[in-house]
């Protein structure tokens, strides 16, 4: 328990260093654009592939398990839309990105730590925490909501594609369900969660990478810990945010 409080304290100390004494704005603009490409654009393919198949599977399973004349098929489209918006495209995609993006951040910064590149930045008078971590946080917070919107759109499109390709339900009924009782606040809720999760993934992963010690094996261990801890924290905040925003 004491070790937990020690980690929490060191985390907040690092975040205080990240958000203090920034370098020149021009340097940050270039690094933010670079990190948007590295963390965001390079994650579009993975997000799209997973989303289209999940949307198709949700629709297929609903069609199989709700095969009743008393249940209108339009509810399948409604359920697919709500599942993608409320949970999958924010929480599950964040968990997937914590593995891809989080491990990349932790290993990158961890390698810089053990090769003394961070020490060299400090010697030159550069705030290494802010220079290395802040652009990643800003890039993820700005770009991950676009991945969420993309995931929602591709997911519901995947549901329609499986309905059309297999004939398991009438595609027009699916579209009718997509338009049924739509609440724009659900999108807002999903984007708020995504923004918080983006901060968690980048900051927690950067924390474990920044304090990595030893050799390359320790960098790998730090990457693993970063993914595990960020995933757990995402699930905790998913529960908290749902309690605050929906209830």
Verbal overview:
- The structure is a single chain.
- This protein has about 250 residues and is mainly α.
- About 85% of the residues lie in helices and about 0% in strands.
- The protein contains 9 helices and no strands.
- The protein has helices at about 1-20, 25-40, 45-65, 75-115, 115-125, 130-165, 170-180, 185-210, 215-245.
- Helix 4 runs parallel beside helix 8 (about 185-210).
- The chain is elongated.
- It starts with a helix and ends with a helix.
- The mean pLDDT is about 90.
Number of contiguous helices: 9
Overall number of strands: 0
Q: Give helix and strand order, one letter per element, not per position.
A: HHHHHHHHH
Radius of gyration: 21 Å
Biggest sheet architecture: none
Name the shape in a single word: elongated
Mean model confidence by pLDDT? 90
Give the terminus-to-terminus CA distance: 31 Å
pLDDT < 50 stretches: none
> Which range best describes the helical content: under 10%, 10-25%, 25-40%, 40-55%, 55-70% or over 70%?
over 70%
Computed structural class: mainly alpha
What is the beta-strand fraction? under 5%
Distinctive features:
247 residues, mainly alpha, elongated
């Amino acid at each position: 328990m004491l070790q937990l409080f020690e980690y929490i304290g060191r985390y907040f100390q690092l975040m205080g260093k990240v958000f203090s004494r920034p370098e020149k704005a021009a340097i940050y603009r270039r690094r933010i654009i670079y990190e948007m490409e590295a963390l965001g654009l390079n994650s579009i393919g993975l997000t799209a592939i997973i989303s289209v198949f999940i949307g198709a599977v949700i629709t297929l399973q609903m069609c199989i398990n709700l095969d009743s004349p008393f249940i209108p098929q339009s509810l399948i489209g409604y359920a697919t839309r709500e599942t993608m918006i409320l949970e999958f495209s924010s929480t599950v995609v964040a968990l997937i990105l914590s593995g891809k993006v989080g491990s990349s951040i932790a290993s990158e910064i961890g390698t810089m730590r053990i090769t003394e590149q961070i020490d060299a930045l400090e010697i030159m008078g550069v705030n290494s925490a802010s220079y290395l971590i802040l652009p990643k946080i800003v890039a993820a917070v700005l770009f991950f909501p676009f991945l969420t919107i993309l995931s929602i759109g591709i997911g519901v499109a995947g549901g329609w594609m499986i309905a059309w390709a297999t004939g398991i339900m009438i595609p027009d009924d699916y579209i009718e369900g997509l338009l049924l009782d739509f609440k724009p606040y659900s999108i807002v809720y999903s984007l708020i969660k995504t923004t918080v999760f983006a901060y968690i993934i980048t900051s927690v992963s950067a924390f474990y990478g920044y304090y990595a010690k030893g050799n390359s094996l320790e960098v790998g261990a730090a990457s693993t810990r970063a993914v595990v801890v960020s995933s757990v924290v995402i699930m905790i905040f998913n529960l908290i945010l749902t309690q605050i925003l929906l209830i």
